[in-house]
Amino acid sequence: MMKRSLLTAGLIAASLSNVHALPYGFFDARSVAMGNVSVATGGITTAALSNPGMLSVNENDDSYALLLPALGVQAIDDGNVIDLVDEFQAIGTPTTPEELDRQIAILNDLDGASVIGAVIPNVAFVSSGENFTWGITARADVVVSAGIREGSVIIPTPTNLVEPDAVVDALGVAITEIGLPMGTDLSFAGMQLSVGVTPRFVQVDSIEYSSPLSTADIEDIKDLDTEDLGSFTTVDAGVVLSVIDTFRVGLVAKNLIEDTKTTSSGIDVDFDTHLRAGAAFDFGFMTLAADMDLTERDPIAFENPSKSLAVGAEIDAFSVVQLRVGYQSNLASGATDPDLYSVGLGFWLGFNLDVALVAGDDSSYGAFVQTGFHF
To answer: Which pLDDT tens digit goes with each residue over 234-248?
Structure first.
């Protein structure tokens, strides 16, 4: 039931807008607010989810940290697809040449378009010792991709007087995982080198949906069955080098053990190794950071590939209030995703409360909210 609920939520999120490939990760409110940087920044809970090499850096010198259930959603609209679908269905069977021409124009606009959305809940607990840090994480990543099936667009001609239509296909993938991050540090040429690994157990489930565009209805999704694609074990590894007290660089490799899951209809869901580098200046009251994907991520189904460049900044007022801003862009070849801008606030109220908002061109939005403790 939980897996179906997550998948349905993801499909509903995707139905809100036309979305393309999501950037790498979506781990916590701080990272999202700072443009989705995480490789060389963050507290130990962030490191547990993003780069285990940061576990021993421990910016706040915490002994324990708990990230309570956190939730993020993302939908990026750069094609006005939902409005076009609503308009197409509202016309119904065309009764005038103008209505027919308008439906044909809509089909041409939708051909090659895609929809993708995400819902991401997670929790984490980390214990930091003098020489060794360990933790446990639980995370779900529900990603949905939809689009017009290639070759399915039907447009009437003088010799084939049929109603215009097309076939909409959607694939929802729920990736639930348990991680055991662990890390330590050592001296390297007078600098601190922090290393970490996160073995992960990953379960994959899917939902597939197909319908004529003229009758597609999100309400039909609740009646679909999920498909168990199986599980696998992989590992992430990361390193962070503190060059000087205020500057560090990092590298993380996700899915060092690769796997591929295939749906009953023959769609492959690939878990390939992914590399990302980052750097950060940490002045205490201010942090400046940048991350960049070194490898391109393939689309789930219909959307663009993803290769993200992210930059962000945080201003910390007495460890009580933090103001964050960020920017990210998809540099993948041929990608047409809008650039995203983010802003967020962090509060220490005896517990952490962090919120982040993301926006881009053409009604593109995302949000993340979380609470937690550190001591």
So the answer is: 999 999 999 998 999
